[in-house]
Amino acid sequence: MAPTHVLRCCQRGLAWIPVIFIALVVCWSYYAYVVELCLYTITMMGERIVYLIFFHVSFVMFVWSYWKTIFTKPANPSKEFCLPKAEKERYEKEERPESQQEILWRAASTLPLYTRTGAGAIRYCDRCQVIKPDRCHHCSACDMCVLKMDHHCPWVNNCVGFSNYKFFILFLAYSLVYCLFIAATVLQYFIKFWTLCRRKSAENCPKNELNNSAKFHVLFLFFVAAMFCISILSLFSYHLWLVGKNRSTIEAFRAPVFRTGSDKNGFSLGFRKNIAQVFGDQKQYWLLPIFTSQGDGLTFPTRLVNADAEQATVTLQPDSNKWANRTSSYSVPEVSVSPLSESQNRLLSNEQQANNADDHLAENFLKSAESETVTMESES
Fold first, then answer.
1. 307: pLDDT confidence band, cut at 50, 70 and 90?
2. For the residues of 230-258, what is the DSSP string, one character each?
């Protein structure tokens, strides 16, 4: 049996096959469009120049964003989320899950954590030996914990997460533009080629018609562009919807769990703020594969932190109903989390004002109802 590291190297080598396939298809499409279509087929110089300019603009942006998506290293949890050496040794020696959780809750007292496991426990990765920040998940393919992990994409041989999610969205956008432009500009020549193929005799075709090489490339260029366009359009539309909801692919299938329970919209701040979370505040950089996402990937503003906006900390407590069944003598200590960010305090302040306004209206309504009741009783 081959050693584990040899199998791991073979696995990593095979993982590049989809990327190599895409690279070969892109190189062939460049040759087919520039050489076979623009140089050998199109006769009008003005049309040729316009096509070449727009083609190269979309091609450069597509390759640039694809390159950034592939070679941007996924962001990992910082050292502050690692257990201290003494606590790690205690955690490894403990056999009871309750005692291990007590160690984790103590270590998480200074960390900004608002999500838990489904059982209300601290999210801890035994493989990486780190406390998972919010929206962080372990990728088995990359063998690491990835901040705000969305999914592992085999077509880029990389994890799509906080560090390269914007690049991935732009890669989908520019690949869609690239395929649409090719399909739209090749369509008329594809129809001409298809018409020529239906003629019974080749002698009837004029000499300046498409040659056999151009026929082959035009035919397959249109089919490949249309096929990729359809598949990319559905994926791009889905991820645009996720960006608008401020969810990852993992969170869309499994809602994150907060102190108040699971909520798939827990990180949603409104459409505009959700867009800014991924693309940043500077709109002039939105269409460029340059990192402009907000935050550090470790903490995220959430609308589910139910606390007084004037308080500096939030207390996390596990679900008593779930943990009480496990042991009667064990109790998880209260954990004070680091202060809320400015955006979180602002959101909490708005919610509190709205709640106060609703309470004031309800109180006035009850007073008016009571006065009407007293008036009716006096009249009777």
1. very low
2. HHHHHHHHHHHHHHHHT--HHHHHS--EE
Quick one: DSSP state of residue 260? Answer: T
Q: Which residues are CB-neighbours of 271 under 8 A, at least 6 positions away? A: 244
SS3 letters for 163-211? CCHHHHHHHHHHHHHHHHHHHHHHHHHHHHHHHHHCCCCHHHCCCCCCC
Catalytic residue among 142, 145, 153, 159: 153
Alpha-carbon span 19 to 21, nearest angstrom: 5
What's the CA gap between 308 and 311, in Å, rounded? 5
Distance of alpha carbon 343 from alpha carbon 309, whole angstroms = 11
pTM of the model: 0.78
Please name which of 91, 94, 120 lies closest in space to residue 107, comparing C-alpha atoms.
91
Lowest-confidence range among 34-38, 285-289, 328-332?
328-332
Confirm whether 153 is a catalytic residue. yes
Burial (CB < 10 A; 0-12, 13-18, 19+), residue 260, is exposed
Name the token pair of 264: 């798939």
Specify the pLDDT at position 319.
44
Buried b (16+ CB within 10 A) or exposed e, 339-372: ebeebbbebbeeeeeeeeeeeeeeeeeeeeeeee
Instruction: Give per-residue pLDDT as tens, 130-181.
Output: 999 999 999 999 999 999 999 999 999 999 999 999 999 999 999 999 999 9
Residue where the block lists tokens 């007084």: 308
Mean pLDDT, rounded, of the chain: 81
Burial class (CB in 10 A: 0-12, 13-18, 19+), 332: buried
